[in-house]
Amino acid sequence: MSAIDSLPPLREVIAAHDLRAKKSLGQNFLLDLNLTARIARSVGDLEGSDILEIGPGPGGLTRGLLAEGARRVLAIEKDARCLPALAEVAAAYPGRLEVINGDALEVDPLAHLTPPIRIAANLPYNVGTELLVRWLTPPDWPPFWQSLTLMFQKEVAERIVAKPGSKTYGRLAILAQWRAEARIVLSLPPGAFTPPPNVSSSVVHLTALPEPRYPADPKVLERVVATAFNQRRKMLRASLKGLAPDIEDRLRACGIAPTDRAEQISLEGFCALARQMES
To answer: What residue ranges define each of the domains in the chain, with the CATH number in brackets?
Structure first.
């Protein structure tokens, strides 16, 4: 028996269903059920929430979420080989787990979920950042989710929580911190996974803010930030000159020195510049 429920340990589940992780799907299975339960506890109020999980694989985190009291879990899994193992989890938690066999980039989960909704996932490495950006940039805010608790490669996690002046500070930090509180809640070595990845991993918890920290048009802010960091070694007067012929005047109007570089500018500064670009 495992430490959290009556189902077999994950190593036995993987052996029974011949679930070798596929590199093409970005799979690395987390087998320690105590760790998956710890991640589940970091999500927040599970009993009163529906949980969207992406890439459950053999169901380690799924079991953690359910054992820790999630009202309901919707799991989207692309790999059909995992479905029999997930069906066993669903049988052990009647009426609380729904599994959709599909691509998370293509499935609309909202018809299957009831608010409040939280997202928790050991994201496949090959789609993790793309999904995060989608969740952070919906047409309307606040979003459909209250929080995101997501596993990433450690370097991606550090980019999400980075502060101005650091080498990891960039577009991802600004997208995340403009509309959410972001913090790293757990770090895991390669050996915690099967097969072990080449890098360490970290779990990031993001809580949606009721409104963005500073006013700015999302599309304008995204364009300014992407342009600035696309040539991050250049001074802003050079990297942003294509956005406006009078870019130096606009920078000064925001209190930004034209000779500054993108990594020196705070979130508040970028939002001020986005508003200035609209005038």
So the answer is: 10-208 (3.40.50.150), 218-278 (1.10.8.100)
